[in-house]
Write a structure and sequence with these properties.
The two termini are about 35 Å apart. By secondary structure, the protein is α+β, with helices and mostly antiparallel strands. It has three domains: about 120 residues, Arc Repressor Mutant, subunit A, CATH 1.10.10.2890; about 80 residues, Lrp/AsnC effector binding domain/regulation of amino acid metabolism (RAM) domain (Alpha-Beta Plaits), CATH 3.30.70.920; about 100 residues, Alpha-Beta Plaits (2-Layer Sandwich). Strand 3 and strand 4 form a beta hairpin. Helix 2 crosses helix 3 and helix 6 crosses helix 7. Helices cover about 35% and strands about 25% of the residues. The strands form three sheets. It has a five-stranded antiparallel beta sheet, with helices on one face. The chain has a four-stranded antiparallel beta sheet with strand order 3-4-2-5. A two-stranded antiparallel sheet has the order 1-7. The chain has ten helices and eleven strands.
Length: about 325
């Protein structure tokens, strides 16, 4: 594992490619990286064996499927021994995408999707009622703006992606065959066409057509490799930010800071307090402190409060399409 901590330039470039489109043709990736197909296959297999690549997941435009709210909820419990029970309880939820363990005043964060505010409120009320003696505190974060700058720390020089969540876009109705194809991709977004065909009893030709249609309809945005960043020497931290003066000018400053700092993976704006959070990949505490120092220096004449939420990892038990 040690040899993979300090990645070669080619390894970094390949990880970036797999993050943007893990189903990309190996020959095309090889051409872009100026290496052979055999080298691409060898490096991917090595990444998988070393658990640098944990799996492959689809990125879905949830709003096109009628799910308009993306909600991150942090929970704190009265007893540490209750955390695993709670995680098991919500694991099969039709609304849960991922669970994240934290090292802060909260114990875990859970990313949910909901069709609307009523579904969110009903679900949260049920959770709180069932666990009212164990949940001591919770915090809800719902973004109205997000911008992503993935893998800058791996020398990513590709065009910056736009937010993948379109609020209340026109709903697309999946047919039964499309649901079957997406269910297979949800388990392994890099599944071969022949394996999807065997699992769904749908012809390879129709699967290819359906995949193209789902991309053209902006349902499947892409597929990407899902990494264990600690294997390559990086840790993951969420920084909750509250700016007293949350003006358009200060929002633009936050965006520029996030875009220009190679450690910042994304920025999100919310209503209420805090009104922003950024996600950071960093090698050690001193690097994190340097990032926070630069952040504060960006707002020398403004009231800025910061709360740090270190994460155990990027998340576990990923279920990108939980409602299928």
């Amino acid at each position: 594992m040690k040899e993979w901590i300090n990645l070669k330039v080619m390894d970094k470039s390949l990880l970036v490619q797999l993050y943007y489109n893990s189903r990309e043709n190996a020959a095309k990736i090889a051409k872009q990286l100026h290496i052979s197909r055999e080298q691409v296959a060898y490096r991917i297999k090595k990444f998988e064996e070393l658990k640098i690549i944990k799996g492959y997941i689809p990125l879905i435009n949830y709003s096109r499927l009628g799910y308009h709210l993306i909600t991150l909820i942090f929970f704190r419990f009265n007893r540490q021994s209750y955390i695993e029970k709670f995680k098991d309880e919500i694991k099969e939820s039709k609304n849960r995408i991922i669970t994240i363990e934290t090292f802060s005043k909260y114990d875990i964060g859970v990313l949910f999707i909901f069709k609307n505010e009523k579904e969110r409120n009903d679900y949260l009320s049920e959770i709180l009622n069932q666990n009212n003696l164990e949940i001591s505190e919770y915090q809800i974060i719902e973004p109205y703006f997000s911008e992503f700058y993935p893998l800058k720390f791996l020398n990513n020089n590709q065009a910056q992606p736009i937010i993948f969540h379109e609020y209340k876009s026109e709903e697309y109705k999946l047919d039964e065959k499309e649901k079957k194809v997406l269910s297979v991709l949800n388990k392994n977004a890099n599944a071969r066409i022949i394996d999807i065909s065997r699992a769904t009893d749908i012809s390879a030709e129709l699967i290819i057509y359906k995949l193209k249609k789902l991309k053209d309809e902006n349902i499947i945005l892409t597929t990407r490799a899902y990494y264990n960043m600690e294997r390559i020497g990086y840790f993951y931290t969420i920084v909750l930010i509250n700016l007293l003066n949350f003006s358009k000018q200060n929002q633009d400053r936050l965006k520029r800071f996030s875009k220009n700092n190679e450690s910042v993976d994304s920025i999100t704006f919310m209503l209420g307090k805090p009104n922003c959070y950024i996600q950071i990949f960093h090698k050690d505490v001193s690097e994190l402190h340097s990032i926070l120092k630069n952040l504060k220096q960006t707002f020398p004449n403004d009231s800025l409060t910061i709360e740090i939420i270190p994460l155990k990892n990027e998340g576990e038990d990923v279920n990108a399409i939980p409602f299928l």
